Amino acid sequence: MNFSGPLYNILLRKKGEVADLVTQGRYLSYLTKRLRRLISENIARHIHVAGVRGNVLIITTSSSAWATRIKLQARELALLASQDISELHSITEIEIKITPKTEEPILIEPTPRSISIKASSDLTAMANSIDNDALKHSLLRLANRSKHKPG
Predict the structure, then answer these.
(1) Pick from 89, 77, 78, 149: which is nearest to 120 by CA?
(2) Helices 133-143 & 117-128 angle (0-180, nearest 10)
(3) Spatial CB neighbours of 66, under 8 Å, sequence gap ≥ 6
(4) Which strand (E) or helix (H) includes residue 147?
(5) Could you state, in order of their start, the residue ranges of all structural domains in the chain?
């Protein structure tokens, strides 16, 4: 993640909560990188450090399957973290939370809608018999959805 843009520079100059959030985010990212170096690459790709609360290291993962695999190694992971990462020297327990990944929605081009020639002809006739300009305009637009224009 590149933190060099103008928004980031503005946030760094801010005092209080926003600057604290930026600092905390960087710290959690740092701890995640350090923790990932201690464990197998297979599991490392699926964890993120979400926080530290007392002697508890809070880790998030994307699914219950990965949460189960991490739970099976939680004691060993807590021991490794407390020994190898000075900031986590007091960690004795690991809490795992599941935060499913959200995928970008797939944008599907809408299928152009059309109506039959008969329907188009009927709508045009109806529109021409109406005094309300807004309704008349709407009906004519709908009539234009025919694949073939009435002849």
Answers:
(1) 149
(2) 160
(3) 43, 46, 47
(4) none
(5) 6-98, 111-151
Topology classification of domain 6-98: GMP Synthetase; Chain A, domain 3 (3.30.300)
Determine the residue type at 26.
R
Q: What is the average pLDDT across 24-53?
A: 90
Q: Which tokens hold the place of 81?
A: 């973290």
CA-wise closest residue to 26 among 53, 3, 52, 59: 3
pLDDT per residue as tens digits for the range 126-144: 999 989 999 999 989 888 8
3-state secondary structure of 90: coil
* Calpha distance 49→20 (Å, rounded): 17
Q: Is 136 helix (H, G, I), strand (E, B) or coil?
A: helix
Please give the Cα distance from 35 to 78 (Å, whole number). Answer: 10
Q: DSSP 3-state helix, strand, coil percentages of the chain (rounded to 5)?
A: 55, 15, 35
The pTM of the full predicted model, rounded to 2 decimals, is 0.56
